[in-house]
Amino acid sequence: MLKRLAHKAREKIRSARTDLRRAVLRKPSSVLLETTNNCNLNCPYCMVGQQNQWIAAHGSVSHDLMTRPAGVMTPETFAVVRKSLLDFGILNVYLHFQGEPMLNRNAPDFARQLKKDGLKVQMFTNGLAFTDKSLQAMVDAGIDLIRFSVDGASEETYQANRVGGVFKKVHENMGKAVQAAKGTKTRVEWQFLPMRNNEHEVEAATAMAKALGINFFAKGFRVTDPERAPLQEKYRCGMLKKPCTDVYYQLGIYWNGDVVPCCYDNNAEEVMGNILAKPLRAIWDSPKYSTFRRHVDEFEKNPAAEPALCKSCLRWDSTGTAPTKAERQEIGL
């Protein structure tokens, strides 16, 4: 009985917050900013959101299956983006989207300028493209978080998951990042994604992280490929109950200025506009974006109009439960 009441209370709170976003704030506070969609790895579970089409056709959702153009955000494009983010009222920037952010040599300078604007800046990285100089530059920029995505605690397992990588190298770079961040406000993390071939290494990775002095956590696996899903249920993510509220909290900007409404739109399925042609506020208020949000909200009333991207979502479905505390924090609730 108490669990049911608590569940209903969480649902009401989530609904009220979402209504506030829609009716009053009417805009996201976070953005995924893609410095590049190039990558130095080819992980077989990379393109989350494409699993329904690509697993059957290709047997994976690896990065090299991406069909949108590859490129690097230029300082000129960044200058336009930066102004638009400030005008829009963005508070939190994830300096990554698809690809490895540190393959753009301007990434530390982008972080520095965003911090100068008073924004929270975080970056998720595979950690292999760092040099001693670029790592120090990123810490000196004042970045709030550097999160290493490292899915293995042995060379064999790591290379099976992070195809093209070298565990010894990324382990070394994590240690260097910890040392560079000492005495600063930069937090350094090791994110480990448990799968069937590496869940047995979580304990070893935890011990390695302790030895390095890096903050460690195992992130729940969203099942892009059932064959890779961990056997232990605790390492699998549950589904959240639609309607999705992420579209009111976060959006994405590709390296070329294209704006997309979802972190799972990594292959340009729902481009809402381009920030080089229109400011972010105009794109957000456009009929196209407004219609997209309405179709997301009204998935039960008009299921045929629900965006295809949302129908195959690995985060939200019609049977999920209210967000947990950790999941609410993940999306800024």
Structural overview:
It is a single chain. The protein is of the alpha/beta class. Helices cover 38% and strands 12% of the residues. The protein is built from twelve helices and eleven strands. The protein has helices at 2-25, 51-58, 75-88, 107-116, 132-140, 155-161, 167-181, 202-212, 280-285, 287-297, 308-311, 325-330, and strands at residues 30-33, 92-94, 120-125, 145-149, 187-192, 215-218, 240-241, 250-253, 258-260, 273-274, 316-317. The strands form two sheets. A nine-stranded mixed sheet has the order 6-5-4-3-2-1-8-9-10, with helices on one face. A hairpin with a 4-residue loop joins strand 8 (250-253) and strand 9 (258-260). The radius of gyration is 20 Å and the shape is globular.
SSE sequence, one letter per element: HEHHEHEHEHHEHEEEEEHHHEH
- How many E-type strands? 11
Report the principal-axis shape: globular
Tell me the β content. 5-15%
Q: Total helix count? A: 12
Mean pLDDT: 88
How much helical structure, as a percent, in the residues? 25-40%
> Termini distance?
25 Å
The radius of gyration computed from the alpha-carbon positions, rounded to a whole number of angstroms, is 20 Å
Q: How is the biggest beta sheet arranged?
A: 9 strands, mixed
Strand order of the largest sheet: 6-5-4-3-2-1-8-9-10
Protein structure class:
alpha/beta
Poorly predicted ranges: 328-333
